[in-house]
Amino acid sequence: MEAFQKIHPLEFYRKFLQRSVRPDGRSLNDIRKTSISTGAITTACGSSFVKIGNTSVICGIRSEVGIPSFENTDQQTNIFVNLELGPICSNIYSSTKPSEQAMSLSSKLNSLVKRLDIPKEDFYFDQEGKVLWYLYVDIYCLDYDGNIMDASILALISSLKNVKLPRGIIENTNEYYKDTEQLRSLQINHYLFPLSFSIIEDFILSDPSNQEEQLSTSNLTITLNENFEICLLSYSGIKPISETILQESFEKLKNRIEYLKSLIDSAQEH
Amino acid sequence: MRGSFRLFYIQKKKEQQKNEQNENKNNNNSIDIQRNNRSDEQFRQIFLKSGIVSQASGSCYIEIEKTKVLCSVHGPRASHKTEEFVAAKFNCELKYTTFSSSVDKYDYTENNKEKDQSLIIREALIGSVRLEKYPKTVIDIYILVLNDDGNVMVASITAASMALADAGVEMYDMVASCSSVCTKDRILLDPSYQEESLPNTTNILVAKMPALNQVTQLVQSGDLSYNTVIEAVDLNIDGCDKIYSIMKQNLIDSLEKQLKDKDNNNNNNNMDIK
Amino acid sequence: MTNTRNDGRLNNQIRAFESEQSLLNKADGSARFTQNKSSVLAAVYGPIEVKNSRKQKILKSLIEVSFTPSVGNTTYLDKEKELLIKNALESIILTTLHPRTQISIIFQVFSDDGSIISCAINAACLALLDAGIEMQGLIGSVTLCYNHDKSIYLDPTAQEEKECKSLSVIAYGSQSSQIIMNKTEGTLSMDLYFKSLPLSKEACDKVISYIKLAVKNRIMGTISTNTTSTTIES
């Protein structure tokens, strides 16, 4: 059977999918076991570790202090997200240059951060906001078994909720001190709930594994916030998608939101 | 965009002020560092787990208290280049995550340290692997330092050796390693980040294959008297044996677990969302 | 529908299309697609030999897209655009006809005044037709922006893109009424999203009929085609 899987992977999958089951025992709508933990990295000011089945990502946030330039202040962001898909997580990635996939995902994550509506005052180092905190969010994939998007979005939100910024003290106008005994966290007004799908022929698979992603003709990722508003919807692939399938996918995510919310919240309690 | 200034911890400033007062009282220059809950020759707790990266041939995760390192091995696999090899090509790459150390500014250009350390790890391991068994292939080792609280090299070499064993690569023996920081009158085994960054200290790293009783790597950085070197190396070699026993036990455990998993191949980890 | 936008257009009015085909000598096919101040040049080379043999696909041809902005170097934002355009075009090109080959599509932005991804996809469609690459059908793309007062602007300018609440790039094919590519970002209620789909479909049909007209003109001998701006009734 293993040989058959290697030589004719698509035919192998088709045999399973026609019976509404996947080779790993899941049904088409099943999602792998998801777990989130926070605060494992002591050197970062916020961190989280997310595992969806075998896929695991670690996310750490580094804080820097900077003086903002006063040109186009409304356009400025204080959070920069970067996703790293290195050779450590899978042999399909090389260490020399970042993959296109990682860059595209980073750009999506950067746009999603803006959806969290974190008030500007939260980044103030001093009282007036002349000096600001800048947060660098780096997400490293440790094990790539598909659905990296969901894992990184969950890692992003839970690590941002884990951020503890020290109180800033300015003495003699250009001596900057941080007081690690007085910590505060960011005020995050929204949640992000992601769910990805792969479409293999006419079957829609929730939470695809690595092999499923490779066999798929199209990929769909949706992200909603707690008010069921779309934060990100990305569909691309060889085959077109109908409106009804989109609607069904939204329903599937809606049913999962409560569970994800409790997962994100309970990860903060430790 | 960024002004030129430096950021300090207020706690450090207070400490500094206190130190200055002390120094005025007695001008004693000896570096004093207190270990809270362990003696100079005591290791921190080590946690090892192999086979955790599903996409790699072999992998290992190691925690030495706060120091956290992940290693995965790809290979032996076909080389992309058409060069002819008598033996397998052996690559090693160490990387620090941007948040692994608590410095205020991460310098993206500075990776000399990573390159140097990769080389040391490669040299420590290459003697143990039977490369001639895998002609025309490549064995790649990738190491990611998630959290640096000292003793990264020992963690990396241990993890890499375990990952190689997990990948089923033929080896003469696993490589165990141990490092210490020598101050003027003390030898601190398994140093923390704070101890490593003390001024005027010497770092000694020993890697060896305990079953063959052969040393594969010995690195000393800094000056030290002959007698202290011998003493420190002896101490480190003993430390290697201790780490080796942990590695061996872990390897046996993971093998037993693999066999057990094969027997009852159920996965009921899945969640139904309906 | 009476309130007008900054440039005097109605909410559901698309800027006038302009296009020019076969303007490059070296390329197998090329086209420029312009909507007022947004203008993109697409060049198609192919099917040619695969340059990087490791990327070669045994059963189909490889599509390579490179997107160069009007100013500055390519950043990760451009990489994302490349991937979106690539995925959209892969679905209409009959890649299985030329296995072990490569089709390169190169974009150069002349000026960016919003809806640039849509512009690029439309330009690519014209350039592919010009190059004579076999396709399943035509592709038309349009950008929508959703404002805070729940109104929808079709074909937004850069200014409108910046001020809006959320932005959606959508592409439809001529052969079915299904979505080929979609990227929506920003906060947007699901009702509004699904309500806007017929509108975008209608707009894409307009784009496709324009492409048909442009190709017709090209065959008749005129390489450039202009239209006035169109209003979409949904």
Automatic annotation (TrEMBL), chain A:
Swiss-Prot/TrEMBL keywords: Cytoplasm, Exosome, Nucleus, RNA-binding, rRNA processing
Coiled-coil stretches: none
A Gene Ontology BP annotation from the UniProt entry: rRNA catabolic process
This protein's record includes keyword Magnesium: no
Domain Exoribonuclease phosphorolytic: 31-166, 195-248
Signal peptide residue numbers: none
Gene Ontology cellular-component annotations: cytoplasmic exosome (RNase complex); nuclear exosome (RNase complex); nucleolus
An MF annotation (GO) of this entry: mRNA 3'-UTR AU-rich region binding
One Pfam match: RNase_PH_C
Localization per record: Cytoplasm; Nucleus, Nucleolus
Protein family membership: Belongs to the RNase PH family.
Protein name: Ribosomal RNA-processing protein 43
TrEMBL record, chain B:
Any single Pfam family the record assigns to this protein: RNase_PH
GO cellular component, one term: nucleolus
InterPro entries hit by this protein: ExoRNase_PH_dom1, ExoRNase_PH_dom2, ExoRNase_PH_dom2_sf, PNPase/RNase_PH_dom_sf, Ribosomal_Su5_D2-typ_SF, RNase_PH
UniProt entry tagged with the keyword Metal-binding: no
Biological process, per Gene Ontology: nuclear mRNA surveillance; poly(A)-dependent snoRNA 3'-end processing; rRNA catabolic process; rRNA processing; U4 snRNA 3'-end processing
Keyword rRNA processing: yes
Subcellular location: Cytoplasm; Nucleus
Gene3D superfamilies per record: GHMP Kinase, N-terminal domain (3.30.230.70)
Keywords noted in UniProt: Cytoplasm, Exosome, Nucleus, RNA-binding, rRNA processing
GO MF terms held by the record: RNA binding
Regions of compositional bias (Basic and acidic residues) in chain numbering: 14-23
Region (Disordered): 14-35
CDD domains: RNase_PH_MTR3
Residue span(s) of domain Exoribonuclease phosphorolytic: 42-170, 173-235
Chief place where the protein resides: cytoplasm
Similarity section: Belongs to the RNase PH family.
Name recorded for this polypeptide: Uncharacterized protein
Native organism: Tieghemostelium lacteum (Slime mold)
UniProtKB/TrEMBL annotation, chain C:
One annotated GO biological process: U4 snRNA 3'-end processing
InterPro entries: ExoRNase_PH_dom1, ExoRNase_PH_dom2, ExoRNase_PH_dom2_sf, PNPase/RNase_PH_dom_sf, Ribosomal_Su5_D2-typ_SF, RNase_PH
Domain of life: Eukaryota
Main location: nucleus
Keyword Phosphoprotein set for record: no
UniProt subcellular location: Nucleus
GO molecular function, one term: RNA binding
Residue stretches making up the Exoribonuclease phosphorolytic domain: 13-134, 138-202
Keyword rRNA-binding: no
Pfam families registered for this protein in UniProt: RNase_PH (PF01138), RNase_PH_C (PF03725)
Keyword annotations: Exosome, Nucleus, rRNA processing
PANTHER family, A to Z: EXOSOME COMPLEX COMPONENT, EXOSOME COMPLEX COMPONENT RRP46
Family: Belongs to the RNase PH family.
UniProt protein name: Uncharacterized protein
Source organism phylogeny: Eukaryota, Amoebozoa, Evosea, Eumycetozoa, Dictyostelia
